[in-house]
Amino acid sequence: MGGKKVNKVVLAYSGGLDTSVILKWLQDTYDCEVVTFTADLGQGEELEPARKKAEAAGVKEIFIDDVREEFVRDYVFPMFRANALYEGVYLLGTSIARPLIAKKQIEIAIAVGADAVSHGATGKGNDQVRFELGYYGLKPDIKVISPWREWDLTSRSKLISYAEANGIAVPSHKRGEPPFSMDANLLHISYEGNALEDPWVEAREDMFTRSVSPEQAPDQATYLNIEFEQGDPVALDGVSLTGANLLAALNKVAGDNGIGRVDIVESRFVGMKSRGVYETPGGTVLMTARRAMESLTLDRGEMHLKDELSPRYAELVYNGFWFSPERQALQAAVDHTQAFVTGVVRVKLYKGNVIVVGRKSPYSLYDEKIASFEDDGGLYDQKDAAGFIKLQALRLRTLGVNRSSFKINEQRRRDLLTY
User: Fold this and answer.
1) pLDDT for residue 401
2) Where does the record place the Arginosuccinate synthase-like N-terminal domain (predicted)?
């Protein structure tokens, strides 16, 4: 608690037990005014109770912002343009929400004259890094308060005792050990911890909230047409939609078809392995459709370079470096490739699967006449392939001759040594 006195702090506040305890703890420990910020990221919860709880705690400045469109437009879609998958699997649903929350907290801090910001992330996870790299990247002189790294409320029972001693309501389902922790937004919902900590144990079916199991999905396939403009989805089955509305609509239809569940063991930035279960129905469909659109409209060199850059981009997002110059540089390179990623992709959703069945674009690089096994009218001279192959094979033939000779000489030397 050293350093200069804190006068006002902006807290990322959900209204749940943990952040309600944090709010009171900040008031008691730092003797400061607390400003709360609650973001509507499409988590599907009523946010007005958070306002009432903040008011009851004596908070005078309460911010509740609907940031769903900004979240999808300025964070989710740019990340998807990069085809970002962390460790080849994770669609980064939690990771991509943190920089937006951090940005809003800093904007509020500047507007209300706060000298500190605070979050509810624990000292073991990635979110503390993501929040704080965002804070410092946007306002280098901001003071950051991380209660989980400072207080002595190191167990659930201590947290509940503190809440009860300070008149903070404790929901009945919070009194026992919670089965897992959850984080939700419009892109995904995550489940981690406790009952999920053994990576050999299958997640319970009644845990999932955004998708049915593939076994329970309809026996009839669902077809969708997804329209893209310059890399971003803009319409579903011919109906133009905002980014947030399109993603919400995809979440519903994909979830109904058992799509978007992943169960992974991931490498946290802080050094440990962690098991997580995620539901990302709409995002899973979008990623598959986007790749199909790019297969038609991107040059081979563009596509393959993107495939090299995507893991690096995903790692930067996962580790919290959204506001870093290297992420911004990668974004510029990625966005440059998207100018002609425009057209329609038709997908079939069936029992947990997303199957591409059609794609078309005014900028298609696919030439049916050249690719055809029928007469192409002289567009492609098959005899040209002979010279192409010989040039490609030149170094292999050179290696073969050189190293075959070496092997023969080496064998001859060994034969002589046996006598």
Assistant:
1) 83
2) 8-168
